[in-house]
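One such shown below:

_____
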Amino acid sequence: QVQLAESGGGSVQAGESLRLSCAASGSILRIHRMGWYRQSPGKQRELVATINSGGSTNYADSVKGRFTISRGDAKNTVYLQMNSLKPEDTAVYYCNAYALPYSGSNLEVWGQGTLVTVSP
């Protein structure tokens, strides 16, 4: 019903930048919220940033001032601009969407994840 496709991960050095992209597709009536989560080895998945349909954003304290979440003009795409990257930002980043498909009830969808590696 709803699929998410992520891109933009990679390997960088500390202090550099990366931009992640996520596009939602399928029979979508409305997207309530999109966001990014991340998971490092041995740790639980954690929220990075979210943006809702009204444009309100929410960030983890650890990324405030360095990461910026935004939406594309079509509102089915979300971006995560990551600046001043640190080694502790190394993780698999997952796109997340909370959406209403044409066919039924609200559902939560996850992307397949994209790896971000930051070396010292």
Q: What stands out?
A: The radius of gyration is 14 Å. The mean pLDDT is 95.
